[in-house]
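@channel sequence for tomorrow's demo:
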Amino acid sequence: MATLAYVLLPLSGIAAFLSGGSVRTRTHGLQAILFGTVWPLGLYGASAVSAAMTKLVFAAGALIWAVLLVGTLAGRDPIIPGLRGVLRRAATDPLNSEG
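structure tokens (generated this afternoon):
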């Protein structure tokens, strides 16, 4: 289920977060929501600069998206640097201490 969070950013992330039965799935759902929002905003900002910058932001975003998708599919938990603690705390259900 965690891998599906990255299929249709950020919509699939919302679905994974809301229906996720584990902290892992909700964590990846939140990351997919965040990445699926920031990447298009970055593309929009880059388009105001130049076509080359837009291509660069697109390529970087596509690479990050592929790493997240394939890494999660492989059973690993790739997390964008600096977000692990924040995502884990936000994804943890205080009523369920599954860790």
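heads up for whoever presents: The chain has one domain: 3-91.
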